[in-house]
Amino acid sequence: MLLRELTAGIDHIQGAGPAAARDLGRVGVNSVAELLTYYPRDWEDRSREVLLGDFNKSGAVCTTVTILAQDWFGSGRMRTLKVYVEDSSARAALVCFNRPFLEKQLVPGRRCRLWGRFMYKYGEIQSTSFEVELLPETDGAAGQPLGASGNNFGRILPVYPLSKDITQNLLRRLVKRGLEQYASRLENELPLPVMEKEALLPKAQALCAIHFPPDQKTLEQAKKTLIYEELFYLELMVGRRAMERRNLASRAIPPRASGEGKNSLQHRLLERLPFSLTQGQSNAVAELNQDMDSPYPMARLLQGEVGSGKTLVSFMAALKAIERGGQAVIMAPTELLARQHAENAAKLLEPLGLRIAFLTGNLKAGGRGALLGALASGDIDMAVGTHALFSKDVAYKNLSLVVVDEQHRFGVLQRHAIMAKGNTPDLLMMSATPIPRTLALTVFGDLDVSVIRDLPPGRKPVRTHLARESSEERVYAFIRGELEKGRQAYFVYPLIEADAEKDLKDAQSMARRLAEKIFPAFRSALVHSRLDEEEKRNTMELFRRGEVQILVATSVVEVGVDVPNATCMTIEHAERFGLSALHQLRGRVGRGGEQSYCFLVYSDELTDDGKTRLKVMLENHDGFVIAEEDLKLRGPGQIIGIEQSGYLNLALANPVRDQALLERTRETAFAILKDDPLFNRPENQIIAGVLRRSPPFSDLTL
Fold first, then answer.
1. Three-state DSSP state, 599
2. Which one of 89, 124, 154 terminates a domain?
3. Which residue from 258, 163, 160 is spatially nearest to 211, judged by alpha carbons?
4. pLDDT tens track for 206-237
5. Which range marks the domain in which residue 372 is found?
6. Measured between alpha carbons, how far is 154 from 335 in angstroms, rounded to an integer?
7. Do 275 and 421 belong together in one domain?
8. Looking at the structure, do residues 67 and 140 belong to the same domain, yes or no?
9. What is the CATH number of the domain that holds 530?
10. 87: Cβ–Cβ under 8 A, 6 or more apart, which residues?
11. Does residue 672 fall inside a structural domain?
12. How many CB atoms are closer than 10 A to CB 664?
């Protein structure tokens, strides 16, 4: 019954008519539950006095004042009322923009309660954002709130996100009535021992207090309770997903076809390599082998810096799967990157007798039919490609390993589609964008994680320089010197073509300028996402062979380009790129033995936020440190594709700010699942999902 009432329309709340329901619908509030969880963005503490004289010591003033005088300034439509007031500490002016009606109410001599945000301007303390409530002229008279509904003083008021036709007073009134009608019947969702251990409030009390807190202490308790609840169910979801994998039918591990040790395909590949694996690579291979030898499907995330050798590690996993009679696929987000993986696989693995295929959406019908037949019959051991690998007409005889490269560029449904092509295959996801611990505990909390921190020997750290746009001629001069030594260079721009509304350089215009005016002695080429795949491939191949010295591009070169001879990366309008993108782009150089350089060219009028972000790039080369800073600056919803996956649909919780609480909820949730795998309270969890406005667990299956 309660569930039905919570999912009912806003008009089920007393005093909410069709107009209110229509207006609230514009901000996504269409039901009782959505209204109760339309949490305030801030709170105004009007329960304690803050004098006018202390306006610069607090966020707002809350005091009792006497009205001294009125004045008008401006003329015509711009004629504006100014009211002078004072309390025991100071005098101030209230600038009443668009509120001429206050002339008849704020008359000299009257006293009123005042709340507002003040500043010192034009030689006086003044406010344009304030609220007043007249005090009674006699002891028996009632207060007369101006522009408010009810007594908005002496308590802590919620401040909600607004849109057209919605006012704070409307939301406060409807939320209050909704809580009065429904809150008392809400049951606690969290286990009692957890609530007692963490000193959490009962659900009904927390929901009431988040909107209308009696005091600051209770408000903080309410925040903690609701944040803990959000994170707990997020980690419970993650834990269940991990448990579901563990509960899949145990699989029999077939013996190696070629025996153990020196006869294995892995060992034979290592013997052919002209170098040894780094310690990080060796550790990762050992962890993957252990996973693949267990009776449960592997689910592992492999993280590593650009150029750390993740692809070779994935090849080692593929050899293990293939040696046991299975098939492996490596899925990349772009044809350019997929082709590079396919070429490397052909060079390293075909000499071992493996049969490798390259499959993209651009494959012509004739060749595609033969290739699909070979996949279905098992005549192909490894397929490398793009999203075409999980097209409806693609079937595999025995798909036993799925490798997803640059995993953040694929959505949940895409990963699920390729996994569905096999019978509980092993899964290896790879990322060259290091994932901060806070996100690793949430989005990828059900995966085991391997990290390659070291780079192949001989690599030198890329030297990073910041340059103003007005001084980029010096950058050009330095790069010209590198080109004359036989090196190559990238120039990256945020736009493909000029945009009249954005004062930014674009790749097309700059490609012409670089070729004709700045570096006419060197051959240059342009690559961006609008070019067809064949043209992009040909251009990249010319650059890789050294026939093109300058590559002008957008961020399309962020992944999948391996040119050891390229020593210079110039990123124009660097402040427009995220830190992780800048780190990825910088990783395109420094892949050979020569010293490499990255120039971050920024606007002459750089904002403080832009300065902070570029300073992070200047001072750090560790991708994990950069990723943590990126997360702090941009938030979890804007990086590594989280917004496409629907994982972090959180109302109050912030994994960065609340990391300590996140780790405690994870520990608790996983402990409960371990002790009671069937932990489930169907009625409350259905209501909980409604009240958290979050997607059901089933929508988040990887």
1. strand
2. 154
3. 160
4. 999 999 999 999 999 999 999 999 999 888 88
5. 261-293+309-431
6. 64
7. yes
8. yes
9. 3.40.50.300
10. 51, 52, 53, 63, 64, 65, 66, 114
11. no
12. 18
Q: Do 129 and 266 belong to one domain?
A: no
What is the rounded distance in angstroms from the CA atom of residue 317 to the CA atom of residue 311? 10
Task: Judge if 345 and 287 occupy the same domain.
Answer: yes
CB 446 within 8 A of CB 702: yes
Helix (H) or strand (E) holding 356: strand 356-359
User: Which pLDDT score is estimated for 686?
Assistant: 45
Q: Give the count of domains, the chain.
A: 3
- Cα separation, 665 vs 679, in Å, equals 15
Residue 693 lies in a domain: no
DSSP state of 624: H
Residue 76: the pLDDT is 84
Q: What is the DSSP letter of 333?
A: S
Structure tokens at 261: 């040790």
The alpha carbon of 337 is separated from its chain's Cα centroid by a whole number of angstroms, namely 23
The Cα–Cα gap between 624 and 303 comes to: 10
User: 695 or 669: which carries more pLDDT confidence?
Assistant: 669
Q: Which of 154, 184, 208 is the C-terminal boundary of a domain? A: 154
Q: 171-175, 379-383, 404-408, 600-604 — which one is most confidently predicted on average?
A: 379-383
What band does 186 get if pLDDT is binned at 50, 70 and 90?
A: confident
pLDDT category at 311 given cuts 50, 70, 90 is very high
- Residues 566 and 484 occupy one common structural domain: yes
Q: Is the residue at 69 inside a domain?
A: yes
Q: Where are the alpha helices (DSSP H) in 135-191?
A: 168-182
Strand, helix or coil for residue 452: strand
**Rounded distance between C-alpha atoms, residue 655 and residue 658, angstroms:** 5
Q: What is the mean pLDDT of the chain?
A: 83
Residue 9 lies in a domain: no
What is this structure's pTM?
Answer: 0.67
Q: What is the pLDDT of residue 634?
A: 66
pLDDT score of 256? 45
| Distance of alpha carbon 16 from alpha carbon 107, whole angstroms | 35
**Helix-strand-coil split of the chain, %, nearest 5:** 45, 20, 40
CB neighbourhood size of 547 (10 A) = 10
Same domain for 416 and 551? no
DSSP string, 535-548: HHHHHHHHHHHTS-
Task: Give the amino acid at 538.
Answer: N
Residues 514 and 594 both lie in one domain:
yes
Q: Tell whether 80 and 146 lie within a shared domain.
A: yes
> What is residue 406's three-state secondary structure?
coil
CATH code at 150? 2.40.50.140
Tens of pLDDT, residues 469-509: 888 899 999 999 999 999 999 999 999 988 877 888 999 99
What is the DSSP track for 208-242?
HHHHS-SSHHHHHHHHHHHHHHHHHHHHHHHHHHH
Spatial separation of the C-alpha atoms in residues 131 and 94, rounded to whole Å: 10
CA dihedral 447, 453, 454, 455 (to 10 degrees): 80
- Is residue 641 over pLDDT 50? no
